[in-house]
Design goal:
The structure holds 2 protein chains of 2 kinds. Chain A is of the alpha+beta class. In chain A, about 50% of the residues lie in helices and about 20% in strands. Chain A folds into 2 domains: about 5-45 and about 285-410, no CATH class; about 65-265, no CATH class. Chain A is built from 12 helices and 13 strands. In chain A, α2 (about 15-45) packs across α11 (about 375-405) and α3 (about 70-85) packs antiparallel against α6 (about 245-260). Chain A is elongated, with a radius of gyration of 33 Å. Chain B is α+β, with helices and mostly antiparallel strands. Chain B folds into 2 domains: about 1-45 and about 305-435, no CATH class; about 55-300, no CATH class. Helix content of chain B is about 50%, strand content about 15%. Chain B contains 16 helices and 11 strands. The radius of gyration of chain B is 30 Å and the shape is elongated. Classes of the chains: A alpha+beta, B alpha+beta.
């Protein structure tokens, strides 16, 4: 089969071919960029928090209506913790001031050296008197967890200068604060800068613990855990790990246990959120954007395919007579079929070439205007393959109909 | 003639049903995608208070420490005010109305014993807030200036909360127990929710959050030592306790001022600059940074209320519409090309090229109209789906009259644009050749 006659036929009636090629080009440009963005967002949303088996974790935030003094708060919190630990199926309970991916929490600036002019970084400030390493199942990369006797109780209304002696940091945070050190264990970490800044010794490095914001950059894993109980008036968050498969029942019983521990005279407000739900909410915008892009991509393919089918059908009708003549002169069905498929591949190739350039241009625009990521070439290659495949599949039907044209019928009428 | 061509156009829809249906569907899907994303963009970038957006101002005063300050590359902090600055501005700024505000967590104990304690979204501000933002009231009114001075236990609540607690009864004058204190209800707001919620963009539920459920005087919240619910940034050390917070350089308050006219802005800026230099004499505001003044639209722009994702979705949707357009051109070309014989006869019988052009373009417009109707339905569907995604999108994903007209226009324009080339092609038919080949 020669390409020359197909080409010259195409050049004689360009409009339809140009329209099909244009559709392929636009589709490829949008599809490659859309799928790339979907993949980037999915990768972001799939990042681990550092918490083991997230499905087992639920967080209950307890808020009291009445503010009591430091000691009464500590006692209240202990009673609540004991009540939660007594719930059957609650494997581990710890209180915390904040939760990864919950999008609200506190951060603190820290430094390697108090004489620095600017702090080294701003990191998420987790604090607990219980072992978050144990309840959340965090992986210790180096060193040890803090002991109960290293936990400091701090009255937020008076002693502002007390600070625990030890602290746990994440691996990512250690790499940021001490970029050249082989190990962060034993290093002194300063809270902020200046001669009067408090400090603590790093006794453990956690493999990973995301911040409440869960930033997309490396900052998303700059967290530290400080062994202290800060009384700040109204309440705390309890992290509960349930036995596998029992989270919902444990949650219900934990809620009842907390109400009972506080008695009917002390109403509380609770906000209960499984970690899975926290994660879902954090990435909701990414998920909905992904779904929108996937929907558009599917529609794109459908519309482009329908365009190719429509055009090819039109050509088959228009060329009925010529096909008949060719068949009468000895062309086999296969030849006719091959003619249409080759023609389609030619058109699609022009579209793909234009589409690749268009995709790169669109990506440049998105990078410059909206700060999106750069498009890897692999998307263009696979996009090209998709459209070649789509083109052949779409043209096959009309081409088969053309090939089935009987020479006698085609040449007889009109 | 128009009516006749229109009728012909409607009839021709039936002539080639599969092709026509495909065309209308393609057009409708493209229009729906564009309209759905555009609606969200449109709502997000709309002016929440058009009658006075150019005379409402908020300000950012940089009170960070001098150590390590780099004017060109520095984190602007959380762009709120310290209590010191908020109190000074409230006292002295030359504006017609002024209000400082911050989020307060509210626990409400219903009078009915069978109802559990309710957690409500609350805010503390001064009585100017209500007149400044033209807050609509269902019952009652804001508290008085005297209440502000006294820090009285008075509250304005939302109609939704009123209904939850009191049913259909007008609750003005009744008491409500908030955070263990009894508050007198002075007014009930009637769906006060500017879109975007420009007055409290930082912290709290954000630009498209829910309405405030309880609003109490700022002086009252401070008197009860209510902590800030929202964002607070402390870049320097502070003394412990609530009094320590009030005296600190922590920033946690948002501030709005209304001037008599937009022209008073210069005076306000001038006053701010003087205020800052006075404060510098007292040893504060060491950075010498510029005191920023933003009106409503500038503030929305500055805080990037319209997210990049929304822009991305809109750009891609319009790219998609372009594809649908090219597709429709192809389909129309196919549709018209089989009618060359008809055109030939009409031309032979005396119709001019212009007549043919008009006929085919009107026929295309009919397709466009059908696409618009279907597109509108699809847009409604798409927006309903989008609304389910989050409470934020629930607020913005609604078609208004403007977008409704836009849908119609876009669909017609798209169809006519797509029809131009095929129609022109149809006009080129030479009657002689057509008639000969019959």
């Amino acid at each position: 089969m020669e390409i020359r006659p197909i080409l010259s036929a195409l050049l004689r009636s360009k409009t339809g071919a140009i329209l099909v090629a244009l559709q392929v080009a636009i589709s490829l440009a949008i599809l490659a960029n859309a799928l790339h963005i979907v993949n980037v967002r999915q990768a972001v949303a799939a990042r681990p928090t550092g918490i083991e088996k997230e499905a087992e974790i639920v967080h209950i935030q307890v808020r009291h209506l009445v503010k009591v003094d430091h000691n009464a708060q500590l006692a209240r919190q202990q009673a609540e913790t004991d009540a939660l630990r007594a719930v059957a199926g609650a494997r581990s309970v710890a209180f915390t001031n904040q939760v990864p991916l919950s999008e609200s929490g506190s951060a603190s600036s820290v430094s390697a050296d108090p004489k620095q002019i600017r702090p080294s970084a701003t990191v998420a400030f987790y604090n607990s008197a219980d072992s978050l390493v144990q309840t959340w199942g965090l992986k210790l990369a180096e060193g040890r967890d803090y002991r109960r006797d290293e936990v400091l109780d701090i009255d937020n209304d008076s002693d502002s200068n007390a600070f625990p002696k030890v602290v746990l940091v994440t691996r990512a945070m250690a790499a940021k604060i001490w970029p050249n050190a082989a190990s962060a264990i034993g290093k002194r970490l300063y809270m902020g800068v200046g001669a009067d800044s408090q400090s603590a010794e790093v006794i453990g490095v956690i493999e990973r613990l995301q911040t409440p914001e869960g930033e997309v950059s490396e900052e998303g894993e700059w967290s530290m855990i400080v062994p202290m109980r800060l009384t700040n008036g109204y309440g705390t968050i309890f992290a509960i790990r349930a036995e596998p498969g029992q989270r919902e029942r444990v949650t219900r019983e934990a809620e009842a246990a907390l109400r009972k521990a506080n008695g009917p005279g002390n109403p509380i407000i609770m906000r209960i959120r499984p970690l899975e739900e926290t994660r879902k909410i954090r990435y909701r915008a990414d998920t909905s954007l992904s779904w929108m892009l996937i929907t558009v991509s599917v529609l794109l393919l459908l519309i482009t395919a329908s365009g190719i089918v429509g055009m090819a059908s039109l050509w088959v009708i228009q060329r009925r007579k010529q096909i008949g003549v060719r068949r009468a002169l000895g062309a086999r069905r296969l030849d006719i079929l091959r003619y249409f498929i080759t023609e389609n591949i030619l058109i699609t190739s022009v579209g793909v070439a234009t589409g690749v350039m268009l995709a790169i241009a669109l990506n440049q625009f998105l990078v410059a205007q909206l700060g999106m990521a750069r498009l890897p070439l692999a998307y263009l290659f696979s996009g090209a393959l998709v459209f070649w495949g789509l083109g052949v599949a779409a043209v096959y039907g009309p081409a088969w109909r053309a090939a089935s044209t009987s020479p006698a019928m085609a040449t007889r009428s009109t | 003639m128009f009516a006749y061509y229109f009728k012909l156009g409607v009839r021709s829809l039936r002539r080639n049903p599969a092709l026509t249906a495909l065309m209308i569907l393609t057009l409708a899907v493209g229009v729906a995608a564009s309209i759905a994303t555009l609606t969200i963009l449109h709502a997000m970038s709309s002016n929440p208070i058009p009658q006075k957006s150019d005379r409402l101002f908020t300000t950012v005063i940089d009170n960070g420490q001098l150590e390590g300050y780099n004017p060109n590359d520095d984190d602007p902090g959380n762009e709120q005010l310290s209590y010191i600055d908020a109190a000074n501005l409230l006292q002295n700024a030359p504006a017609q109305r002024k209000a400082a505000l911050y989020g307060v967590g509210m626990a409400i104990e219903p009078a009915r014993a069978d109802m559990a304690v309710i957690s409500a979204q609350g805010m503390a501000t001064s009585h100017d807030f209500f007149s400044m933002l033209d807050v609509p009231f269902l019952h009652g009114q804001p508290w008085s200036e005297a209440d502000d001075k006294l820090g009285a236990d008075v509250a304005v609540i939302s109609s939704a909360l009123s209904e939850k607690l009191f049913g259909a009864v007008n609750p003005v004058g009744q008491r409500i127990r908030i955070n263990s204190f009894d508050y007198l209800i002075t007014g009930v707001m009637d769906n006060f929710l500017p879109i975007p919620r420009f007055y409290r963009l930082i912290g709290g539920p954000g630009a498209f959050g829910q309405e405030e459920e309880v609003i109490v005087p700022l002086s009252n919240a401070v008197r009860h030592e209510s902590g800030a619910q929202g964002s607070m940034s402390c870049r320097t050390k502070r003394d412990p306790g609530y009094q320590g917070l009030l005296k600190s350089e922590c920033t946690w308050m948002q501030f709005w001022m209304e001037t008599r006219s937009a022209a008073d802005r210069a005076e306000l800026q001038n006053w701010l600059d003087n205020y800052a230099s006075e404060q510098r004499k007292l040893g504060r505001l060491k950075r010498q940074a510029k005191n920023q003044l933003y009106d409503v639209m500038q503030w929305l722009e500055h805080r990037k209320v319209v997210g990049n994702d929304n822009r991305l979705a809109t750009y891609l949707a319009f790219g998609f519409l372009l594809l649908c357009l090219v597709n429709t051109i192809g389909l129309l070309l196919a549709k018209f090309s089989v009618r060359a014989a008809e055109v030939g006869i009409r031309r032979a019988l005396g119709a001019s090229r212009r007549d043919i052009f008009r006929q085919f373009l009107i026929e295309t417009a009919v397709v466009g109209l059908a696409g618009a109707v279907l597109g509108l339905l699809l847009s409604y569907g798409a927006l309903a789906l989008i609304r389910m995604q989050s409470s934020q999108l629930k607020v913005v994903a609604h078609l208004d009259l403007q977008m409704l007209g836009m849908t119609l226009l876009l669909s017609l324009a798209a169809a006519l644009l797509a029809g131009l080339l095929p129609t022109w092609r149809a006009c080129q038919v030479t009657p002689a050749i057509q008639l000969k080949s019959q």
